[in-house]
Description:
- The chain has 13 helices and ten strands.
- By secondary structure, it is an alpha/beta fold.
- The chain has two domains: 170 residues, Rossmann fold; 128 residues, Rossmann fold (3-Layer(aba) Sandwich).
- The strands form two sheets. The protein has a five-stranded parallel β-sheet, with helices on both faces. It has a five-stranded parallel β-sheet with strand order 7-6-8-9-10, with helices on both faces.
- Strand 4, helix 4 and strand 5 form a beta-alpha-beta unit.
- Helix 2 runs parallel beside helix 3, helix 5 crosses helix 7 and helix 5 runs parallel beside helix 12.
- The protein is elongated and about 50 Å long.
- The protein starts with a strand and ends with a helix.
Amino acid sequence: MSKIKVLLVDDEEAYVKTLAERMEMRDVESQVALSGEEALKILEGGEPPDVMVLDLRMPGLQGMEVLERVKKDYPHIEVIILTGHGGEQEEKEAQRLGAFHYLQKPADTSLILKTVRSAWQKSIQAAVDFVKDSREEFDRSMTAAALAQAGATDAAREVMKDTASGRQKAAPNGEEATESLKVLLVDDEEDFVRTMAERMEMRDLGSDVALDGETALKMLQEEAPDVMVLDLRMPGIDGMEVLRRVKASYPRIEVIIMTGHGSDEEEVEARRLGAFDYLRKPVDITELMETIKAAGQAKRGSGQG
């Protein structure tokens, strides 16, 4: 079984080389770049990694600019920000630019590894889902799915490369991608969720409401939304189980977790299961709207519209 390939980008040489050694001990193949410029040269000159772990504060080219260039030129690479100097604004900007996750130093090695594996699994699933949507490529998609499930990362990686340019070409502009978006808000706090729906309506984005997981799953049988905004803590079926069932039966739906009771471990698990993003309450309505629009663009950009 081939290893996940990770590029660690950080100017703290002792720290990043120690992290690379720890990853190697856990069967993750790591390469180190001590600057943004070095990282981009590695991408241009050799085999791109599956996942990049990127510091923000470095001499020369800053991490945020590296992130922007990577997501433009190598959209199949998932980028995890790992920084000791960022704040809330930096996290929002990183998410806007397409970062998979944002971790603060010091971060436990096991958490970094879990996040790396979640990012890689998301890449595989996105590639497989894209190929599935082409009837001519159905047999190929089944092969890719089987290879991914078996851990054949080299074979799955080839699928990702072949579909990355296709995902970019299929993506419409921002305004077109958000027209007629169907959103389902799932939260047992009735006053909160109905107020949120009203605020979204005022911004020309309509939504349906479900007050529990069971109701949400029944609604999907009648009409599947483009995006689901899902609370974790609810009576009956909790949000994590709803997410698991949605991604198993309706993989085209993008799911945004929005919770006031989550943890770092639950965030990693949610992303592993395929959540598009993980927001913690209280959430600014503008931030939520932007995340929903980004999810809609991702859905349609991956050929799932």
